[in-house]
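Class, discuss our next protein.
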Amino acid sequence: MPGKSHRGPLPEMTVAERTRSARLRGDVQRLCADIGERNFVAYRGLQHAAEFVAGSLAESGYAVECQDVAVPEFARHAARRSSGGAVPAFVNVIAQLEGAELPGEILVVGAHYDSVAVPGCVGADDNASAVAGLLAIARELADRRLRRTVRFAAFVNEEPPFFESPGMGSLAYAARCRAMQDRIIGMICLEMIGYYDDTPGSQQYPFPIPLSWFYPNRGDFIGFVANPASRHLLRRVVRSFRRTTPFPSVGAAVPSWIPGVSLSDHGSFWHHGYPAIMVTDTAMFRYPWYHTAQDDPERLDFDRMARVVGGLLEAVASLADE
């Protein structure tokens, strides 16, 4: 990867980072404490989460589109029960910052807003952390003039039983983009960005791949993951992040068959031939409360999240302005 990862103590937080940290905390609390579980079983929460994301983007000055996503009958039935018999809708929430010079070239920044259908799981790291990051990037870029279009996408139904099925929001969206011949220059998927651990041995890697020979054993970094076809996008994002942000980072372009590599919405864009990367705290390879009822906001480090989101903000702006 280009550049060097930050080592040593982190610098003192800036005023902007402290403000961003507080806003990230507030958005995660809104999704987890006020709304709670949000999936096809807890449909009211899913609907309220979509409304919250749409409202937040609108408050930042964006025109918001909701794309309907078709789901199997069993999901519609569960959602009807959860919503008291109302006809359920499953939607992706989309907004964009129109490019000033090359509006037809599109950079997508996305995150899924549903939580896993595990009783009591409010999905703080998975994936309220990423949704809060998405909203922060959109909010802080709203007044920027960039050459290319930046499209913000909050996806429904990333979690089982929809993953890699037609009911998966990002797969439906990527298919629509391909059908419309959208010129997507890259997709950045935010997937769990809120948990960090400085303890030696806190970072694990997929078995039996010997990645631990080359990568840190402390879970104090943010990871950037791509398949080989997306390696050029990966290098551009990592280069920008390291140039602007003193925070530990690891990047890897590896085959999609390695466990965990394709397990989020970026895989939907790979499927349709678009370059895409995942930005992640590595999920189950670091986070002990992955897909459990203990995945709550108290586990997250909002100050480190704020630093990461700031670096991603500058990477997005750099890609859109090159």
